[in-house]
């Protein structure tokens, strides 16, 4: 684990200004934007290939479960690659405003970093869908794809909210318990990917799978469909904050060592990082 870059921390001072935050961490902000942009680009392209009536796969008459499984595998692979990428290793691979808000609430992020991360997520998500539209064209906007907009399924809004909430609790719980355990930290990207496959298989007919406000916003913006958008803004935030509250109740706030989803011990860390302590205590 030794490296000349190990535990190099560039966290902002509590009194840091906006200008100081941008000067210190503008690269991380752009990385977070690029990460969610790449995720949305993959979402739109894979979604069009799997669900569009104009897709070559349409002639195979795949079952809904098989389609959801394919989409889940594609998104799991994308999430895994983003987390493991140089960008993800350095920025923390949040690519989700709900994740950022949770780490801020846990006291592991400076307020300016949290604000710029969230702004980067929304900007990156919109840019990703815009790029996908330029590549895919009409099939992306036509039914049933419609920019992969997230909508409640056949069981209604209440069930969709509960499911998004539950998925968010499970996702953030997994991140917190694994990334803050010296034996399991290296497996966090793989576990997040495995959960993504499971989510798509279970939730495609219930909530459309989001657990990410910026992801749902970007699709709704281009599709012009805002029905039940409140679910995809509120449920992920409430769910992840609930998971964090349970974690610190059972384990303790001092056992949240860093705001990175995956801390590789080599990349620069922009957060209020105590990751080294995890190994010293172990």
Written as H for each helix and E for each strand, in order along the chain, the element string is HHHHHHHHHHH
Q: Determine the CATH topology.
A: Glycerol uptake facilitator protein
Q: Please tell me the CATH architecture by its name.
A: Up-down Bundle
- Can you identify the CATH superfamily? Glycerol uptake facilitator protein
Helix count equals: 11
CATH level-1 class: Mainly Alpha
Strand content: under 5%
Summarize the helices and strands and which ones pair or pack.
Blueprint: H1 18-51, H2 64-84, H3 86-91, H4 97-105, H5 111-136, H6 138-141, H7 157-179, H8 188-203, H9 213-223, H10 229-250, H11 275-281
Helix pairs in contact: 1-2, 1-5, 2-8, 4-5, 4-10, 5-9, 7-8, 7-10, 9-10
Q: What would you say about this model in short?
A:
By secondary structure, this protein is an all-alpha fold.
Describe this structure in words.
- This protein has 282 residues and is an all-alpha fold.
- It has eleven helices and no strands.
- Helix 5 packs parallel to helix 9.
- The longest helix has 34 residues.
- It is globular, with a radius of gyration of 19 Å.
